[in-house]
Amino acid sequence: MSTQNIAALRPAQGPESAAAVTRTQHRRRYLMCRPEHFTVSYTINPWMVPANPTDTALAVRQWQALYDTYIELGHEVELIDPVDGLPDMVYTANGGFLIDGIAYGPKFRFQERAGEEGPFIEWFRANGFDTRVPEEVNEGEGDFLLVGNTILAGTGFRSTGDSHREIGEIFGREVLTLTLTDPRFYHLDTAIAVLDPVEGVENGGPERANIAYLPAAFDAESQALLAERYPDAIHVSDEDGAVFGLNSASDGRNVIISPRAKGFERQLRERGYHPVLVDLSELLLGGGGIKCCTLELRGAS
Ligand code: ARG
């Protein structure tokens, strides 16, 4: 499908017909890593069971479909070379966090992924980013999500609270700490999807940057904070959360989601977004989905 064709597709009118809102697509630049060495040889999250067989060729085919989808939608995708012995490198979201041409590198919680730190940091340097080597444990965009001018920062399983202070100092933006409590949702990007990263008035009405999330993945304090900050957020069902429905990528209009997240697909259509379904079932064996395989490269503006 060409970009024009995709852009021409009208969102289905849901019963509420909130689809009256026209969503605006923003062009993205992403970093991805072909899963040539993908397998599950250790367990660092509840999804990973080394005894279950993995099919690397299938993982590559599914990943390729995601890559092709981004290109068809008009986005730019950069690639980092996969490294033998680093099977989780396909989850590039954990490789850093970038805003305004500044790249904050990763420092992984588990030794199994520590070998990825050097290649990601080298890639950012070689590609002209102002690269900062972190002091604190953090897993990049897996736990940091930019919503408008605010950085939502996850903790509880991987990135530490100290890394939240560190990114606040580096990027000079408000950082909102959110605590994850369910081990299945160990990274923030498994429990929150950012739908409109750009804050401000768009499409003739005051629209705020919106998110979708799974309330049950957070402690009570974080749930209260999210409810207050994002009163219009989509709350997804536990079923959709459990199939990594929230682990998705939005360009403001097209939202790439798992075909298993049926309820979320409907909720998105009702709000005027255009869901695009991509199945990464094989990569789910490593505990990752669409967003995990995608790192946004936000350049100097
Ligand atoms: N096996 C990887 C890990 O446990 C999966 C990472 C998923 N990435 C993400 N952004 N949620 O670290």
Keywords:
single chain, three-stranded mixed beta sheet, globular, L-arginine/glycine Amidinotransferase, Chain A, 8 helices
Structure explained in plain terms:
The protein is α/β, with parallel strands linked by helices and 301 residues long. The chain has one domain (24-296): L-arginine/glycine Amidinotransferase, Chain A. The chain contains eight helices and 17 strands. The longest helix has 17 residues, at 56-72. The radius of gyration is 18 Å and the shape is globular. The structure holds arginine. Arginine binds at residues 44-45, 48, 88, 91, 93-94, 113, 142, 187, 189-190, 286-288, 292.
Tell me about the largest β-sheet. Answer: 3 strands, mixed
Query: How many structurally independent domains?
Result: 1
Widest β-sheet, arrangement of strands: 2-1-17
Order of helices and strands: HEHEEEHEEEHEEEEEHEHEEHEHE
Structural class: alpha/beta
The CATH class designation is Alpha Beta
Contiguous runs where pLDDT drops below 50 for at least 5 residues: 1-17, 200-206
CATH architectural designation: 5-stranded Propeller
Number of strands: 17
Bound small-molecule species:
arginine
Helix percentage: 10-25%
Query: Quick check: average pLDDT?
Result: 92
